Amino acid sequence: MRPTARQVAELANVSVATVSYVLSGKDRPVAAETRQRVLDAARQLGYTPNQAARSLRKRRTQRVCLVLSSFGGVPTDARLATDLHEMADARGYSVVTLSVYDEARAQAAVEVLRGGIADGALIRLTGGHLEQGLLGGLADTGLPMVVMSNGSGLEGCDVVRTPEVEACAEAVEHLLTTGRRRVAFMGQRYEVYSDKPEGRLLGYLTALERNGGAERIITGGADDRVAAYQTATGLLSSPDRPDAIFAASDRAAISAIWAARDLGLSVPGDVAIVGVGNIDEGLISNPQLSTVGPLRHDYTDVVRLLFDRLQAEEPPPAREIVRSWTFVRRGSS
Amino acid sequence: MRPTARQVAELANVSVATVSYVLSGKDRPVAAETRQRVLDAARQLGYTPNQAARSLRKRRTQRVCLVLSSFGGVPTDARLATDLHEMADARGYSVVTLSVYDEARAQAAVEVLRGGIADGALIRLTGGHLEQGLLGGLADTGLPMVVMSNGSGLEGCDVVRTPEVEACAEAVEHLLTTGRRRVAFMGQRYEVYSDKPEGRLLGYLTALERNGGAERIITGGADDRVAAYQTATGLLSSPDRPDAIFAASDRAAISAIWAARDLGLSVPGDVAIVGVGNIDEGLISNPQLSTVGPLRHDYTDVVRLLFDRLQAEEPPPAREIVRSWTFVRRGSS
DNA sequence: CTGTTAGCGCGTTCAC
DNA sequence: GTGAACGCGCTAACAG
């Protein structure tokens, strides 16, 4: 059985109140000798306060929740997690992560968050319907949330946006204005099979539109590296193969470079390739990967949004941050 | 303010006990009409039971905790997470994840787990000292744990091991017996800078030993793709370059393939390359990657260990599973 | 079939 | 400086 404050108190010959005061580091004065007895007793018993009881009483968990789509490991998620952990540490919060990669997980996450697992949440999901499911289920809770998303209907929480559509359009326009005539889009499932184009696909379509409506070539396959390789191989083996591929992720774009090279095609000579995300790996591909995304992966501003809200006296009004995205032209285009 | 069971009770004109019985799905008989009133009231107020109060009272959280080193995204972690979530769902548990990528996070995880966030934990860390810190801090709690590790001192919890050393030795021996004379080892920081060789490094050393003590060439750089590329470039640019590289991860091995090709070296002609992990990406590299690891990524047996322990009447004795690893020779060696 | 009651472990008044 | 007593929101035992 886990030791309780009562047991510590008995062992130290004090009351539970004194144990609480000593261990929660309040400024209430406690005699040095008493304090030491309590500390010794706690150590001896291996006592750690029960967080459920503590949060029930204090009506705060001192925890924040990070909600991510997957452990598939986009570097953005990793950096975001690091920045969150760091600031949480500094402000005396713990971090727990919820992984939401499908509808069932979105429902589960709603339950857990409604159940009060944390005082606030930082949410970054890829896949519009997952986000809708989650935020819809949380709308009436007033839980402090920061959402990284370009979606709509995000009232009541802080929102962090990127100029994704415009930046992708710029990248595709670059391809078109440097002489590419058949630009293919390789997207993620949720984009390609959505009823209304958004995000990266919308950027692609916008660019085609602006440039006199070049042919639309739209495929999936950007969800993982193997699928991307296979998709790119298919595209590039066709007799009327594209002369450029705009991939919805850098990982997919790098797979496409491999596919092209394995088919004996030169990049960017025969086919130009551009990705999204600006991950470090793009610097070691051959040729180096052209991409669009943030220049620096620093999310302290995002994270600060959450903690400022948590620690404010008055709930601040919903804020919005727009991060900057840049087209980075390298060797692959 | 979040609605409480009391408010639901008042709205439905029943007692809080009835609310509890209706919503927690106990078999206590409740009149259909009463039940409906409670359900309506709960829905109307947007009531979700406070998990802190519930676990305090039930002395169970109905949660399990997944502890991982990072979101860097080894596919193994992703599959493990999927299998855990699935079985948790089926058995009525939630899953929260703790991310332990450094010493501070290990300490934080100890606090959180000691604080009682979950009824059990599934732990898979890379980095011996992190694991020691975590398990040491949890040793006296009796928390049900399943640990995926080849370390020692893991009494009291279920352990899942791999024949890592022997399998890696086999891979390196394969290189030596196919005529390679200078086999380099590219490892992760925690292996290379450890005082006592273990794991993949130990496998490498064992193979050298067995084959008459070929020269040891040991570098770091396997922690991320860019570092691996740079390290491999350095190794392979040297006048007495190795004619084989055994990398501690498939991702690093693939970076090494790129590095070799960018230097105009043929793989496996000039340099053979072997990785660890058997990730899918090895099938689309050129040449395909030789590797050592599990043939199937299925972790239901691991996950079952945890839930069986959680749901058993009597705590079962500590179990041990040894998963099989195989050397898979492909084109790169 | 339903209501009343007594804690779960802790933090916080209020007395002393 | 310290202890006793109350209640956070909920479930489980016991009455009725």
Automatic annotation (TrEMBL), chains A, B:
Family matches, as SUPFAM superfamilies: lambda repressor-like DNA-binding domains, Periplasmic binding protein-like I
UniProt cross-references to SMART domains, sorted A to Z: HTH_LACI (SM00354)
Keywords from the named record: DNA-binding, Transcription, Transcription regulation
HTH lacI-type domain ranges (all copies): 3-58
Molecular function GO terms recorded: DNA-binding transcription factor activity; transcription cis-regulatory region binding
Pfam families per the UniProt record, alphabetical: LacI (PF00356), Peripla_BP_3 (PF13377)
PROSITE patterns assigned to the protein according to its UniProt record, in alphabetical order: HTH_LACI_2 (PS50932)
Cited InterPro entries: HTH_LacI, LacI/GalR-like_sensor, Lambda_DNA-bd_dom_sf, Peripla_BP_I
Listed name of the protein: DNA-binding LacI/PurR family transcriptional regulator
UniProt organism field: Nonomuraea rubra
